[in-house]
C-alpha cells in the first residue's frame, strides 16, 4: 500500500495498543514504525529488475520483523522513563504490531509480499485491494486526527481500525463473488481451469479485472457490481512465447515474481517481458527489456525498464464510466 496508508495504519495500531498511554508521541512513533519496512526502496540491488523483484523482501518478512521488534523493544526499554511507564510486554506488542501490520496489509495487494523470507516460497498475493484505496485509508486518517485532539485517543484508533478492517474483509468477499461469476461463465469453455487472476481496478472495489492465461494468448475482461447483467465481455490478446534461445535466468526470476502471469513481445531487436498482473490490458507498469538479438542470436542484457506513458486524465473518466456499469468500455481503457 502507499506510504500514507501505512503511516496512519501504524499510528492507529500504536494508539489502540497504548490505550490510556496514547498521546501524540505514540501516534508519531507508530507512524514511523508503520513506514519502516518500505525503506528497502533505497537499497540498490544493481538493476531495475532486481530492485523490482526484491522490494517487499527481507524487510517485510515476519521472520525478520518479529526478532527486530524484540530487539528494538529491548533497546527502548534502556530508557529509564520508558521502562518505568511501559511494561516490556506492552511495548513489544506495540512495536511488533505496528511493524507487521505493514507487510500483512501489503499481502492483500497484487504486487506480492515475501512474508516468509528467506524461505523459498512464492510471495503472498491475495490481490483483493488496490495499492491506493481511499475507502480503506480515509477511516484511518480520520481516526488518527480524532485521536490527536480527543480525550478518547485509543477509542478513536480502535474505531478507525475496525472500519478499515471491515472494508478489507469486504474486498476479499467481493473478490470471491467475482471469481464465482467468472468461473461460472467459463465453465464448459476452453478457458475452464486455466490460470485465473481477479484483481480490483484502481482506487475502488466495485470494478474488477479478470485475467485468464492461455498458452500464447490471454483473455481480459472487467466486471462491475453495478453491471446490469453479470456477463463479462472478454477480449483476447497475444501473450507470445519467448524464443527458445532467450530462456535466460532473468526471465525465470521475472516469471516467478509475476506468478507466471507474463507476456512476451519482440520489439525490434529487443525481447520484452511484461507483468500482466498489474495495470490493465496493454497498460502494464512492469515491463523489462531482457535480451537483444545480435549477430543471429539472442544475447542477455542488463534488464532495462520499458518506459510507460499513461494519460491519467483520460483513463480515470473511462474507468469511472465502466465502474458505473457502462459495458462498452474495453478492458484496456485506452
From TrEMBL:
Keywords: Membrane, Transmembrane, Transmembrane helix. The chain crosses the membrane at residues 58-76, 88-105, 125-147, 159-179. It comes from the Bacteria. This is Metal-dependent hydrolase. It comes from Sinobacterium norvegicum.
